[in-house]
Structures are given as structure tokens and as C-alpha cells.
Amino acid sequence: MPNIKSAKKRVITSEKRNERKSAQRSALRTSLKKARVAIADNSDNKAATVKAASISLDKAAAKGLIHKNTAARRKSRLAKAANAAQ
Fold it and tell me: Using one digit for the tens of pLDDT, what is the confidence trace for 27-80?
């Protein structure tokens, strides 16, 4: 643990940020997994889950959780897989 007050604060804030970031990343992975499972099963709510995953990717990119090109690439691959499954 650091001795300087500002360094103590940085440790606390970085822990909070890391906790928030890991929760957001987990939620993003969950939505992507749901979409992939829906595509693989060719379920009825495939379009809705793909759309929800796309929205969550956009939000993650806007928050700086992932790069915007990464979000675009993943959205493209999801859409491509959904269209191929029809």
C-alpha cells in the first residue's frame, strides 16, 4: 500500500474502475454468447438476440471498453453468421 495520499487514491479509484470494467466486459461476453447460441440453435428469437448483442457492442465501444473497429468487426461477423443460418 502506498504512503502518499494521491497514490492511495489512485489505488482505490483504479480498483473501482477495474471492477466496473470487468462487470461490463462480462455482460458484453454474455450477450455475445447468447447471440451465438441463438444462431447455432436457429431459434425464433435469433434476430432479437443479435440486435441486443449489436447494441451492447456499440455501447461498449462508446464507453471505451473495446475499440470501435473491434465492435464493428464483431457486429459484422454476428450478422454474417445470422444471415448464413437462415
Answer: 999 999 999 999 999 888 999 999 999 999 999 999 999 999 999 999 999 999
Q: Which helix (H) or strand (E) holds 17?
A: helix 5-41
Note the pTM of the prediction, 2 decimals: 0.86
Residues 6+ apart with CB under 8 A from 56: 27, 28, 31, 32
- In this structure, the chain runs to a length of 86
Virtual torsion, Cα 60, 63, 69, 71, nearest 10 deg:
10
Tell the burial category of 82 from Cβ atoms under 10 Å away from its Cβ (0-12, 13-18, 19+).
buried
Count how many Cα atoms sit within 13 Å of the Cα of residue 49 in the half-sphere of its side chain. 21
Task: Decide if 28 contacts 56 (C-beta within 8 A).
Answer: yes
Residue 29 CB-half CA count within 13 A: 6
